[in-house]
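Technical annex, item 7. During the second reporting period the consortium partners agreed on a shared format for inverse folding records so that results from different sites could be compared directly. Each record opens with the tokenized structure and is followed by the designed sequence. A conforming record, contributed by the partner at site C, is shown below for reference.
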């Protein structure tokens, strides 16, 4: 069900106001919305996936919209969202908030990364549901109360982004340092350069990437070690180049993570565990 704003002539329209709201169930591969070609008034689109899966292309890069995810974008903008043709229909709820600011009202952090994981933010999704229910159950006309409600909701979403980026920026800097050093840098020294204590940066890094910086460093070193084994390099040489104390230390660390010894891996390149996808987050 979808309902648009009624705007009788002569009524002053607040600079930020509700424009449209609804819920939809999409199962047609033909469903696609390219907002880069939109010629309508400036507005904010907030869409929350209830079930199923859709996709959104952001400046040519495709991102999945899974259950619990929500995006908040400026329209017009470099976005195209669509149904990905999966077996399950894509069910979502959304609101559109119009505004009079040609330069937009969202922070740059949200423009470049507009997808939010709302699984841990039920208070926000509950508020979104209340907004949509309120909209659908009444005859909609321009309302100052609704405009205030809309603006508060946008600020709630922005607050999630700000909290996300507070932990992401130092974590990302530490990640770059670890990768640049091939996992051999001191986490404590890196923390000092970033301006954090080691316990504090460890907490932020773990929250951002779901893995401690020490464990991340170990995976970086082991990925390099796997390449050396595949190329036939000597075990002692690999251990030294990858920053392990000795070949024994290297062997224990390798088997504890990959489930096979370096010698077994060299023979068939077939580890029991393949955790290196964590390095690409």
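Designed sequence (site C submission):
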């Amino acid at each position: 069900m979808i309902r648009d704003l009624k705007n009788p002539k002569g009524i002053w329209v607040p600079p930020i106001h509700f424009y449209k709201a609804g819920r939809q169930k999409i199962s047609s591969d033909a469903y696609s919305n390219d907002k880069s070609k939109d010629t309508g008034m400036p507005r904010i689109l907030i869409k929350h996936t209830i079930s199923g899966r859709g996709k959104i292309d952001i400046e040519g890069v495709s991102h999945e919209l899974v259950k619990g995810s929500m995006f908040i974008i400026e329209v017009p903008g470099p976005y195209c969202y669509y149904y990905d043709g999966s077996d399950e229909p894509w069910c979502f709820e959304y609101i559109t908030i119009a505004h009079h600011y040609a330069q937009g009202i969202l922070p740059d952090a949200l423009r470049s990364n507009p997808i939010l994981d709302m699984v841990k933010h039920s208070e926000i999704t509950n508020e979104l549901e209340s907004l949509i229910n309120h909209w659908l159950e009444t005859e909609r006309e321009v309302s100052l109360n609704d405009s205030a409600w809309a603006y508060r909701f946008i600020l709630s979403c922005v607050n999630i982004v700000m909290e996300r980026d507070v932990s992401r920026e130092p974590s990302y800097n530490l990640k770059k340092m670890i990768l640049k050093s091939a996992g051999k840098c001191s986490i404590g020294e890196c923390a000092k350069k970033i301006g954090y204590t080691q316990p504090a940066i460890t907490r932020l890094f773990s929250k951002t990437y779901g893995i401690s910086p020490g464990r991340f460093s170990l995976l970086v070193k082991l990925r390099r070690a796997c390449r050396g084994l595949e190329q036939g390099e000597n075990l002692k040489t690999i251990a030294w180049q990858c920053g392990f104390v000795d070949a024994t230390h290297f062997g224990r660390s390798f088997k504890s993570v990959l489930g096979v010894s370096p010698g077994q891996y060299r023979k068939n390149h077939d580890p029991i565990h393949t955790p290196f996808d964590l390095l690409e987050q």
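The two ends are 37 Å apart (CA to CA). The chain has a mean pLDDT of 84. All partners now use this format for quarterly exchanges.
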